[in-house]
Amino acid sequence: KTTKADPTYPECNLFNLYLDEYDTKWTSQINRLDYLVISSGHWFYRPVIFYENETISGCQYCALPNTTQLPLYYGYTKALRTSLRAILENFKGLAFLRSFSPQHFEGGPWDKGGDCVRTRPYRRNETIPEGADLKIHDIQVEEFRAAEEEMKKKQGLRLRLMDTTQAMLLRPDGHPGRYGHMQTAA
């Protein structure tokens, strides 16, 4: 479950993320679906205040005083686990967890001059998932395996992993290149 930290201030890029609560906007409707796809990852790179048991447990990229700075992996793992638990408890159809699509910037991060100028896909031996991208993928696989074990106890639910990380790493068109952010005078 997520909310804007200050909904009265549209430019605020800080979000509240309730790591142990379901978002009833979707959990109240999933019993009407036959198929469900969870596709997540890059959203979690934003400034976030984490809540657990209705209390602030920390934050990420927030610089709030007297608040523990927690890594991306902390919030992502717990949020994914909660989402999978909601599916296990409330869904009877076919659910897919689509793995993380890696970043494609060369020459630096997207906001520090990095660009995506490839015109042909990488070959398999030219690149491998690494760093944060690999860690997010590993979290997804680990949480999927745990949910898969729980799923065996449920009748009717089918859960599948659509592991697209390697294929998405190879593609040349992963991001809009220099057009993905405001251009500077330089």
From TrEMBL:
Q: Which gene underlies this protein? A: TBL21
Q: Name one Pfam family in it.
A: PC-Esterase
* One GO location term (cellular component): Golgi apparatus
One GO term in the molecular function aspect is: O-acetyltransferase activity
Report domain Trichome birefringence-like C-terminal positions.
Answer: 8-184
Sequence similarity: Belongs to the PC-esterase family. TBL subfamily.
Q: What is the protein name given in its UniProt record?
A: Trichome birefringence-like protein 21
Top-level taxonomy: Eukaryota, Viridiplantae, Streptophyta, Embryophyta, Tracheophyta
